[in-house]
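Why do we care about 3D structure at all? Because function follows from shape, and shape follows, mostly, from sequence. That is the central idea of this module. The next example makes it concrete: a single protein chain, its amino acid sequence, and then its structure expressed as tokens.
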Amino acid sequence: MDSLLWALFEGADSSFYVRLATHGPDLIRDEDFADCYSAGMGRPSIPPSLLMRAVLLQLRDDVSDREAARRAAKDLDWKRGLGLEADVVPFHHTTLSVFRSRLLINDADERVLRITLERAVTARLFPKKVLALVDSTGVMGAAAVADTYELVRQAIARVVGAAGGAEALPRKLRGRAKGIVAGKTRIDWADSNARRSELGRLVTVARQVLDATADNETLSDARQLLKQIIDQNIDVDPDDGAGPGIRRGVARDRVVSVVDPDIVMAARAHRNGSTATRRM
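And the structure:
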């Protein structure tokens, strides 16, 4: 790519970002993701190889989806690693969540991540020990757990917004609703107790919001989406008695986005055997 952006990196050939830019096309190929997309829909709007490069950069820099999207849009190191021109804004932060969910639902998460990391180790982008990530920590699966919490939060916020905002709810619920709408709670995702506590908080607020809006027929779509997301992802009364927990496994018709109706429709169409939509 002959551009001002690339000229700015002249002489920095040993950096991780430059090596990713150099080896990226060989490390990550769109055909690696062929079984995650229906041939009838053609190529996805955002190449999966680009999103997988972003996942590698996330692993390397240890950043959230939101920060990854910001860096992809603003950070010149990331832009070079992703093979982007300086003025390109490649994706919204929720796109990474949808991407990981697509891999999980098609049982491609471990396979694609292992293939990618093996190639990255060969290219000396990562030390060999990083391959243990696939087996011991479930990188993509762990990220998808965090995605599930955010999915529930967004669904609650959608109902609250459709109701007219937190101020339209009963007074005792407004503070909790505002906290949900404000954004993702910062917790230690490695702490199982912290995760369980946060999930319990989300489920409690979701139930309260659903109860408070039960008589508002104009909110039926938003309320149904919230109910569906909770039913698909959360065991509200598990056998261990420790409060709500994440369900094991991934439903084939799982809703993976509250903002992209095409993704929801694609999931339903796949369940019904349609070949006219993207596979979920």
